[in-house]
Amino acid sequence: MTPPIPRRTLLKGAGAAIALPLLDAMLPTRLWAGDAETVGAGVPPRRAVFLYTPFGMHMPAWTPAAAGALTQLSPTLAPLAPFTDDLLVVSGLDTTLPRNLTGGHTPSIATFLTNACPTRNNSGTARLGMSVDQAMARRIGQVTPLPSLELSCDAPRTFGSCDSYSCVYVNLSWAGETTPMPVLTEPAEVFEALFERSAGSVGDPLRRRATRASILDAVGDAARRLDAQVGVADRRKLDEYLTAVREIERRIARSGAVEGAIAADVQAPAPGQPGGYLEHLRTLYDLLAIALQADITRVATFMLASDMVNRQHQHLGIAEGHHSLSHHGNKQPQIDLLCRIERSIVDEFGRFLGKLKAVREGGGTLLDHSMILFGSAIGDGNKHLHTNLPILLAGRAGGALKTGRHLRCPAKTPLSNLHASMLDVMGIATERFADSTGKVAIAG
Questions:
Q1: Following DSSP, what letter does each residue of 49-90 receive, concatenated?
Q2: Which of 195, 228, 233, 231 lies closest to 360 in space, CA to CA?
């Protein structure tokens, strides 16, 4: 009997290397003595992803009508109808801010995953706390090429004053009290991090990019050899995976051509045009999906947009900025426009979930083995309230989550209670996280 292919097999060639998705040929029919890489490979790993959207949500349009089974989604959540059975909507959670101080958008970002209260000041210094994603990465990150992945559509600021706080606080992920994690914003940088650095490549990505050569060309011979070793289902899975990688390369190349033209003409395109925010968002989402599929990382954060940017969603035909509309003053025309933006954000989230659900993995899907937190640290953007936050979990975490329901927590339940429960789901038993006072009943 031929031993299974090791999970950490790479496609290598011409100074390039690409990590692979979980193939059936990697799943052992029994544990092979002496091959530590295959031990436990029959059970796909759990992944944890944290997605942040700014300015909260218009809660009357977000919140399901009743607790219990998700028999009908709210208007804002309606785009997620294909994933109803994969969702756990959690209402009634607060951040630390209402219990310590009020604040605008900077502390919202800072507290979302740390549950630590930032200090109001105008200096470049900041003191916060470790974020829940980094608490996970510290325990499970050593088993993947990248312990964690931090993405954002907007570059974080590291100096100056933001909302009377240090701009250093405009970061989701913190390794410690004074150490925000570096964030990747450009798709080309993310691609290089996933397929150059993480895979141990010694090639020259800049030269390859300059000649428009694909990383897949470099590993083509290795891919063909692997193709001959695996079954029909794995060949199809490998083809789909490499096709997705090549498509992302092409999109990045197109983006680079646009950027070159902008540099030459010294004139950037108007916001919302093709190649703008929506394409940026989708490309980062797709790169994140590839990173999870290839097990390059099992922990990731993604700031879909920063609270410090009043972005115009012109692809929706809306000229007003998102931040401006969040302060709608209870005027229905502004609320209607805001809800269109929020539904679009949820729709793009659904597109990401669809990518994960399309990937077959170990008798289930990539979504089945993931736990994805989507939400904001603002409940009411009109009043800057940090109570009753819009929060949901997607995916089943390998069966650990009881999904397809709306869970209402008692008023003033700390968001950190949910984070503590998520740590448990990832196999990191903890009594408390940050200012938690208990756990949220998310387990199945």
A1: EEEE-TT---HHHHS-SSSEE-SS--TTTGGGGGGGGGEEEE
A2: 233
Cβ atoms 106, 165 nearer than 8 A = yes
Q: SS3 for 364?
A: strand
pLDDT at 360 over 50: yes
pTM (predicted TM-score)? 0.88
Given a contact cutoff of 8 angstroms between Cβ atoms, the answer to whether 215 and 17 are in contact is no
Is residue 305 within 8 Å of 322, Cβ to Cβ?
yes
Count of CB atoms within 10 A of residue 224's CB?
Answer: 10
Cβ-in-10-Å burial (0-12, 13-18, 19+) of 331 comes to: exposed
Ordered DSSP codes for 170-195:
--S-EEETTEEPP-B-SHHHHHHIII
Q: Which two tokens stand for residue 419?
A: 């984070």
For 40-59, what is each residue's pLDDT tens digit?
446 799 999 999 999 999 99
Rg from Cα positions in the chain: 22
- For residue 112, the surrounding DSSP H or E stretch is helix 106-114
